[in-house]
Amino acid sequence: MKNKTIILIAIIATGFLISCSDSFLEMTPKSIISNDQLLTPENAEGMVIATYAELGNDHYTAPNSLWPYADNTSGDSYKGGGGTGDIWEFNFMELFAFNTTDNPLVDQKWYRLYVGVGRANEALKVINQLSVEEYPEKTEREAEMRFLRAHHYFILKTMFKYIPWIDETVVGEAYGEVSNREFTDQELWDKIAAEFAFAASNLPETQSDKGRPNTYAAKAYLAKTKLYQAYEQGDDNSVTGINSSKLQEVVSLVDEVSAQYSLFTDFGYNFLWSHDDGSTESVFSIQRSVDDGTPKGRLDWGNMLNYPMNPEYGCCWFHIPTQNLVNSFKTDEKGLPQFDTFNDSDVLEGADFYNNSFDVRLDHTVAIPGHPWKYDPNFIYQKDWARATQIYGHFSSLKENQSPNCACFQKVPPFMASSKNTDIIRFADVLLWKAEALIELGRQDEALPIINEIRQRANNSTGMLKMNDGTPNSNYRMDIYKPGDNCDWTQEFARQALRWERRLEFAMEGIRFFDLVRWGIAGDYINNYFAEEKTKREYLKDGQFTEGKHEYFAIPQNQIDFSKGLYKQNHGW
C-alpha cells in the first residue's frame, strides 16, 4: 500500500469508551445506514484498508516504533528533548519510580492499540457475514484482519500482561462484561497464537500489495509468540520455567520461514528509505508513503521528535543513546564483546573512537561528534546539534532518522519526518529467536552458526562508514565466535553471547526491555544500570526498578474506571 492514496471510508469506534450522557451532545441523526447496506464487498474492503491505516496512525506521544516503552526503559536510551520535563510522561517511564497508574501517555498507548483491535473487529463483522461467492477474498481478508488484531494484542500483552480479549463476537453492552482477567497469562498467549496460526494457514505465500502479510510473516509472528510464551511467569512476573516444547515449535517455525528471506549484505541498508523496496530482510513492516496525493504523505510521526537540532532539521532531539549503550559496542583484542569490562571507561568523542576497538554496528546506530551523519562524509555530526547536553550528553540516534536530502524527508513545522517504513519484524530477529531457543534447549552448538552469520554480516558492513579521506569512522575490530580459539562455547557463554548480540543488533529499535522481561532479568539488569549511569547522568539518581511490579506497565486507571472496576490492576501497582 506504499505510494497509494489511502482513503478512510469510516472511522471505526472501538466500543471501549463509555458514551457521554450530556444532553447537548445528543443529536438526531440525519440518516441511518442499515446493517444490510454495510454488507457489501466494497465496504468490507474499505474497512480492511481502515484497519491497515491504523498501523500508520501513530503519533510522537504514542509511537508504533515502541522506543519510549522498550529503549527508554532498558538502559539503551535516555528520553532526551529539552529536559526531564519535556514530555515528562516518558521521563516517568524511564525512571520507573515516578511512574503512576494515571500516566496519560500510557493510557493513550492502550487506547490507540485497542483502536487497532476495534477496527479489525468491525471489519471482521462485515467479512464474516459475506459469502465466498459474493466476496472471493473473504478468507484471505479474514486472515489479514486476524493477523493485524493479533499484532496489536501482542504489543498489549508485552506491555500490560493481563488484557481484556475482545473480538468481533462481543457487541453492545457485552463490552462492559469483559474482564482483563478472564484468561490466564498462558491462555492469552494461546489466544494470540491461534490468531497467527489461522493467518499462517490462510494467507498466500506472496502478496501483490506491499504491506499485506503473507503466510511466512504470520509464521514468523507465531514463532515470536511461542518464544515469549515459553518463558512461563508467576503472578509476580518472575520466570518460573522455560517450556521446551514451545521452544521446539519456535525452531520448527523459523525453519519454515528461513528460506523466504535473507539478510541484507550491509546492516545499514535496513535503516535507509532507499532500500525499503525490494527488501530481503523485512518480514513485516508498517508502510509509509510520500507524494501520495495527500499534503504531507503517510509519514512516520512516531519518530518525528528524534531528529537533532541543526538547521537542516531543527527539532527535537529525543531518543538519545545512553553512555552505557555506546560503551557496550567496545570489543576486546579478539574482536569479541567486552562482556565484563565494557563500562569500565567511557568513550565520548575524538580519539576515544580510535584508541578503543568497536563492533561495526556502533556507527550505524549512534551519531558521534566528528563522524558522518547518516553515511554522508560531507555532513558531519556536531556537538551543537545536541540539545540538553548537560542532562543527556551529546550523542544522537541514527537508525530511524533519514537524511534531509532524502526524497522521503518532509518538514512538518515545527517538526519533520520521513516515509521510511517501520520494521516490525526483520529477518535478523527471526534468526536470533531460533538461536535463543536452541541455546535454551541445550543445543548451543546449533545456535553458533546463526549468531556468527549475524556477526559476520555486521563485520562486512563497513562500506558506508568512511570519512572523506576513506578512513573508517571508528576503529573496528570484530570476529565471529570460534570455540577453542577465542571462546569456550558452553551453554552459559552462548546465552551471554546471544543476549549481547540482540542488544547490539537491535539497539534503538524498540525491543530491548521486552527481551529483559522475557528472560526474567529486568530487575537486576536495570538497577545495575541505574547504579552506574547515575554517576554520569544526575537525573537518573531517582531511577529505581521494583521487581514484581515494573516488568509491566500499570493497567491505566482510566481504563479501570471505564470498566467500573471490572479490570484488575497488575501485580505490585
TrEMBL record:
Keywords: Cell outer membrane, Membrane, Signal. Residues 105-226 form the SusD-like N-terminal domain. The keyword Signal applies. It comes from the Bacteria. InterPro entries: SusD-like_N, SusD_RagB_dom, TPR-like_helical_dom_sf. It is found in: Cell outer membrane. Residues 281-573 form the RagB/SusD domain. GO terms for cellular component: cell outer membrane. Gene3D superfamilies: 1.25.40.390. PROSITE patterns: PROKAR_LIPOPROTEIN. Belongs to the SusD family. This is RagB/SusD family nutrient uptake outer membrane protein. It comes from Draconibacterium halophilum.
